[in-house]
């Protein structure tokens, strides 16, 4: 990593010339939508649903939830995100809620959970923010912080999926199936191939749909992720199977879209809070429910999204319904 330069302008010049120490490669980015276009499908509150369901539960995203159940009246339709798997990220633009996904990336989720508990990210910048691509944060050198003492992480680009790990298939991703496991967008080899593998499982991987939270790393070293992360604002498909996704934005994506752009950003927006909901007091901890993608309610919701020919949108265009109860 570079040595820290005490003057912000000089650091900015170095960052511009050399790139951030832990980079995310934007090459061949397939997503061409503008940030405004993505925001309208990712984080626009549905006032109709709010009015019909009352103030206890707030809908998230552009999904019309006015006719949907709430976690209170149909708990089997929803799953509550455990408080120790929910990160509360705050910037000057608002609060973003990120669900960790230990099932797919146990090492990375443990690391970012530990960093959240230690307030490591508080005061660190979003130093590289590119339209339609991603917002990257955590460059400690930019603000004069010492190197992180944590060890680099072993890549978790893929996970092994057993046949009993149910996946709701909504389409294809090249030669793989695409869909949802526990509300997370994934791609997977056909489970029928499991009978031909030594461990009886198949390869599966998380997708860099808008709102994916993933670990940045150094160049070509796949095992160099440590303490920087990014949140996707588009769908950079070329990053799939090349960077470890450790979480998914469940609410507050609009705050990410409002982060100041630049490479580098001068001056950057800073992280004001990055904490596990389980570490917050009851008065300030939100609660999140995600529609159970294995439920009949989700199957009924998918039916409403089909075209006249019975085809579903691309998996990255399907918003999983979410309710949030704010304190």
Characterize the structure shown.
- The protein has about 325 residues and is an alpha+beta fold.
- The chain has a single domain, classed as Cyclophilin (Beta Barrel).
- It has 6 helices and 18 strands.
- It has helices spanning about 10-20, 35-40, 45-55, 105-115, 255, 295-305, and strands at about 60, 80, 85-90, 95-100, 125-130, 135, 160, 170-175, 175-180, 185-190, 200-205, 210-215, 230, 245-250, 270, 275, 285-290, 320-325.
- A 9-stranded antiparallel sheet has the order 15-5-6-13-12-14-4-3-16. Strands 7-11-10-9-8 form a 5-stranded antiparallel sheet, with no helix packed on it. Strands 1-18-17-2 form a 4-stranded antiparallel sheet.
- The model is unreliable at about 1-20 and about 30-55 (pLDDT under 50).
Q: How would you summarize this macromolecular structure in one to three sentences?
A:
This protein has helices at residues 8-18, 35-42, 47-53, 106-117, 253-257, 296-305, and strands at residues 58-60, 78-80, 86-91, 94-100, 125-130, 134-137, 159-161, 168-173, 176-181, 184-188, 202-206, 212-215, 229-232, 245-251, 269-270, 273-276, 287-291, 322-325. The chain is an alpha+beta fold. It has one domain (8-325): Beta Barrel (Cyclophilin).
């Amino acid at each position: 990593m570079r040595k820290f330069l005490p003057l912000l302008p000089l650091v900015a010049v170095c960052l511009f010339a050399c790139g951030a120490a832990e980079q995310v490669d934007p090459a061949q980015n397939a997503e061409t939508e503008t940030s405004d276009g993505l925001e309208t499908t990712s984080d626009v509150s549905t006032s109709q649903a709010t009015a019909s369901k009352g103030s206890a539960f707030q809908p998230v995203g552009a999904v019309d939830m006015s006719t949907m159940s709430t976690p209170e009246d149909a708990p089997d339709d929803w799953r509550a995100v455990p408080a120790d798997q929910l990160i509360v990220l705050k910037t000057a633009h608002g609060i973003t809620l990120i669900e960790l996904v230990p099932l797919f990336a146990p090492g990375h989720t443990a690391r970012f959970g530990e960093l959240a508990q230690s307030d490591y990210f508080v005061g660190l910048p979003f130093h590289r923010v590119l339209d339609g691509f991603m917002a990257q944060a955590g460059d400690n050198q930019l603000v004069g912080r010492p190197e992180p003492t944590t060890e680099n992480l072993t890549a978790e680009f893929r996970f092994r999926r057993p046949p009993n790990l149910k996946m709701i298939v909504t389409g294809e991703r090249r030669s793989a199936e695409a869909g949802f496991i526990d509300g997370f967008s994934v791609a997977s080899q056909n489970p029928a191939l499991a009978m031909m593998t030594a461990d009886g499982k198949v390869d599966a991987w998380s997708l860099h749909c808008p709102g994916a939270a993933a670990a940045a790393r150094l160049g070509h070293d796949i095992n160099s992720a440590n303490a920087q992360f990014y949140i996707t604002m588009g769908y950079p498909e070329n990053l799939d199977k090349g960077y470890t996704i450790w979480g998914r934005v469940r609410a507050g994506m609009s705050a990410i879209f409002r982060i100041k752009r630049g490479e580098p950003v001068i001056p950057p927006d800073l992280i004001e809070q990055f904490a596990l909901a389980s570490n917050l007091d009851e008065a300030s901890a939100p609660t999140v429910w995600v529609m159970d993608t294995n439920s009949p309610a989700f199957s009924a919701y998918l039916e409403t999204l089909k075209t006249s020919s019975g085809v579903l949108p691309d998996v990255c265009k399907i918003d999983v319904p979410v309710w949030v109860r704010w304190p």
